Amino acid sequence: MFKPWRQEIGVDLGTATVLIYVKGRGVVLREPSVIALSTITNEVKAVGDAAYHMLGRTPGTIQAVRPMRDGVIADYELTEKMLKEFIRKAQTGMGRFFKPHIIVCVPSGVTGVEKRAVLQATREVNSSRAYLIEEPLAAAIGAGVDIGEPTGSLIVDIGGGTTDIAVISLGGIVVSESLRIAGNEFDEAIIRYIRQKENLLVGERTAEEVKMRVGAALVKNPEDIRSIEVRGRDLINGLPKTIQINTEDTVTALAEPLGKIADGVKRVLENSPPELVSDIIDRGVIMTGGGSLLKNFDEMLRQVTGIPVVVAENAVDCVAEGTGMALDMLHVLDLDDDKTLRR
Predict the structure, then answer these.
(1) Do residues 308 and 284 make contact, with C-beta atoms less than 8 angstroms apart?
(2) In whole angstroms, what is the distance from residue 333 CA to residue 165 CA?
(3) What are the phi and psi torsion angles at 155 (to 5°)?
(4) Do β-strands 172-179 and 163-169 pair in parallel, antiparallel, or remain unpaired?
(5) How far apart are CA 296 and CA 224, in angstroms?
(6) How confident is the model over 129-170, as pLDDT tens digits?
């Protein structure tokens, strides 16, 4: 019997970045979760990279915003518009006759209302079927873990808005915890630290650059210490000011949010069945997501838990790739239409 060809698309709808995986092509789009629109006509001016460069620099007639917050939809209309534009970009040069099957990942702690909002936004982009999968499962699949085995795996997925920690076995999540602490909170912690220490106000883009270039969870040796020039507005006289921030500053600034993530990992381990904990001790903790790339974060978790920690090779793309690959794993995951994939 003839089966019409269809597109299968996986969407990592993140707070900071949207990644789109197309079956047979891999990750075809990776852009910031930002949309810019006219405050007068409500017309979309830009999405993704172009809109990101407008953050903090727009006139009164244009507004650049992040419609996702803490891993879920904060503004439904803007998210729908942004997602439509990204899907359109991802389908460039591809046939659009058949409606695609789209699977979107969500944090493990989302509410029923939040799930319905994501599904509704996905249906509105002209999909034939919409599915949800929880981020830890998608991350595990993308990292190459055989989730169908009766063996425990601990995944720590650190995105832009949420950190998802889960023990996975037999194709399902056994124990999990979702924290609203991740890459964006790291940026805010750096902003607060610079403001308190130097009386200097910097923007989120500057804080993100500091995190990526000199940020670290801990300093293992003197070679780890680097510095960066930071510019902002002096809160005392209101004038521009330039200072130097080094790696040790970021370790201090990030101590609180990183400590909360480490505590979350310990809680998940404490609530896990002893047989699965034994498996995790043998196999180690797997870190995924852009936040896992923070220098020496894996070493910090190893010191806290006493368990080996490894960062996935494709840490940033794990969730997107695993989301797309999930459609080929129905026999393991028991994927149902318009339902969250979780046993």
Answers:
(1) yes
(2) 19
(3) -110, 130
(4) antiparallel
(5) 9
(6) 888 888 999 999 999 998 888 999 999 999 988 999 999 998
Reading the block at residue 324, the tokens are 């797309």
Domain boundaries, the chain: 8-138+319-341, 151-181+258-315, 183-253
Place of tokens 């518009």: 81
Question: Which residues are CB-contacts of 259 (< 8 A; sequence separation ≥ 6)?
Answer: none
Residue bearing tokens 């056994």? 174
Position 231 pLDDT exceeds 80: yes
Of the segments 35-39, 84-88, 232-236, which one has the largest average pLDDT value?
Answer: 232-236
Q: Which CATH superfamily is domain 8-138+319-341 in?
A: ATPase, nucleotide binding domain (3.30.420.40)
C-alpha–C-alpha distance, residues 80 and 86, integer Å: 10
Sequence-distant (6+) residues with CB within 8 A of 314 are: 142, 143, 321
Mean pLDDT of 283-307: 95
The answer to whether the beta carbons of residues 149 and 111 sit under 8 Å apart is no
Q: What tokens appear for 221 in the block?
A: 């040796």
Maximum alpha-carbon separation in the chain = 75
Task: Please state the pTM of the whole predicted model.
Answer: 0.86
DSSP class per residue in 135-180: HHHHHHHHTT--TTSSS-EEEEEE-SS-EEEEEEETTEEEEEEEES
Residue with tokens 């407008």: 54
Question: For the domain with range 183-253, which CATH number is right: 3.90.640.10, 1.10.10.10, 2.40.160.50, 3.10.310.10?
Answer: 3.90.640.10
In which element (H, E) is residue 36 found?
strand 35-38
- Banded model confidence at residue 35, pLDDT cuts 50, 70, 90: very high
